[in-house]
């Protein structure tokens, strides 16, 4: 059975070793906007929250999620900064309700996530809609 456990900020430094491989996996697709050290620093300082996906039967961490809050002009949003796991989608998707409850409990109007195109297959089933598209053009020497 899978569970999603929020790591208290005071224990984040100890838990990062279990999550680092999943954070690094998620960051392979972010175009260099973040790195594991930067995410770790934000987790330890309390700017982000670490969640571990744990297989209780195997007694091992099988994924990690990092979240944070974004204060926009007229609303607060929970951002899923990274999400990566080694278990099939149908096993971890039910855990998503825990993140929704966390966001709701913190007064968030919505949850947002930026990710690789493959997330377009997964997220609509969780109630996500597409608001915008990010296009990128490399500029050498910039």
Explain this structure:
- With 142 residues, this protein is an alpha+beta fold.
- It has a single domain (2-126), classed as Gcn5-related N-acetyltransferase (GNAT) (Aminopeptidase, 3-Layer(aba) Sandwich).
- The protein is built from 5 helices and 5 strands; from the N terminus they run βααβββααβα.
- It has a 5-stranded mixed sheet.
- Strand 2 (49-55) and strand 3 (60-71) form a beta hairpin.
- Helix 1 (12-27) runs antiparallel to helix 2 (36-45).
- The termini are far apart.
Radius of gyration: 15 Å
Number of helices: 5
Spatial separation of the terminal alpha carbons: 48 Å
**Strands in their spatial order, largest beta sheet:** 1-2-3-4-5
**CATH topology-level name:** Aminopeptidase
N-to-C series of helices and strands: EHHEEEHHEH
CATH class designation: Alpha Beta
Overall CATH architecture: 3-Layer(aba) Sandwich
- What structural category characterises the helix and strand content? alpha+beta
Provide the β-strand percentage band: 25-35%
Domain module tally: 1
Q: How many β-strand runs?
A: 5
Any key phrases for this structure?
Aminopeptidase, 142 residues, 31% helix, alpha+beta, five-stranded mixed sheet
Ordered list of secondary-structure elements with their pairings:
Blueprint: E1 2-7, H1 12-27, H2 36-45, E2 49-55, E3 60-71, E4 76-85, H3 89-92, H4 96-105, E5 110-113, H5 119-122
């Amino acid at each position: 059975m899978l569970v999603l456990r929020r790591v208290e900020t005071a224990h984040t430094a100890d838990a990062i070793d279990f999550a680092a491989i999943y954070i690094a996996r998620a960051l392979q697709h972010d175009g260099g906007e973040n790195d594991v050290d930067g995410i770790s620093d934000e987790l330890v300082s309390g700017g982000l929250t670490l969640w571990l996906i744990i297989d209780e039967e195997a007694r091992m961490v099988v994924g990690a999620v990092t979240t944070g809050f974004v204060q926009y002009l007229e609303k607060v949003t929970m951002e899923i900064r990274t999400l990566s796991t080694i278990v099939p989608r149908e096993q971890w998707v039910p855990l998503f309700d825990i993140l929704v409850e966390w966001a709701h409990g913190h007064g968030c109007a919505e949850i947002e996530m930026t990710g690789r195109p493959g997330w377009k297959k997964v997220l609509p089933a969780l109630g996500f809609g597409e608001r915008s598209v990010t296009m990128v053009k490399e500029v050498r020497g910039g």
